[in-house]
Amino acid sequence: MIRVLVVDDQAMVREGFSALLAAQADIEVVGTAENGRDAVRVARALHTDGLGPDVVLMDIRMPEMDGLAATRLILDGSHQNQPKVLILTTFELDDYVYEALRAGASGFLLKHAPASELLAGVRVVAQGEALLAPSVTRRLIEDFVKAQPVERGVRVRPEALSALTERETEVLGLVAQGLSNAEIAATLVLAEQTVKTHVSRVLTKLGLRDRAQAVIVAYESGLVSPRP
């Protein structure tokens, strides 16, 4: 079961998402929150009870504490099993999306995305499979890197990449292009499980939480260059 915490300041949206998710056989809604401060409180209480969420579906613009601040607090490293945070946003290239990635979010979805994309998003992010959005491509990360030249919270020196094997480096480059494990497997003519193993080793060697950070690191380290 994928445990989900739904956070949104609009009751109708919150309840709608919760009902949709709860209707799935493999998803359990373990809590809801109407603002960032409440989200942090609920997430910590659930973790204490052994029911910590696997995914936090997080709105950005909320009263008392916004989704960015809440994401930073939820992912502050105080718990061993941190959830994945999936950001809900109204605008695909909203500056908040970049800030959310900096804060440690694993991906984002547009609020007006179809229900099928929301469900797929929760499942994929829970598995650490991909940075997720309705049209997540290399372009998003390229724009992020070019638009945010200041410290972004994920810093890996280029020499750190020397710890990777040639194949792992190749896989990281393809991850940075937005390819899924299946697509990477097809490109490199490998078994999908082999690709998953390579990705896992890349994350471990570089000390990264998930693929979202891996994509950013690939650009920051110069392994992949933004297009002009």
UniProtKB/TrEMBL annotation:
A family per Pfam: Response_reg
Domain Response regulatory: 3-126
Keyword Transferase annotated: no
GO molecular function: DNA binding
SMART domains documented for this protein: HTH_LUXR (SM00421), REC (SM00448)
PROSITE patterns tied to this protein: HTH_LUXR_1, HTH_LUXR_2, RESPONSE_REGULATORY
Domain HTH luxR-type: residue ranges: 157-222
4-aspartylphosphate modifications at: 59
GO BP terms in the entry: phosphorelay signal transduction system; regulation of DNA-templated transcription
Keywords from the UniProt entry: DNA-binding, Phosphoprotein, Transcription, Transcription regulation
TM region(s), chain numbering: none
Name of the protein: Response regulator transcription factor
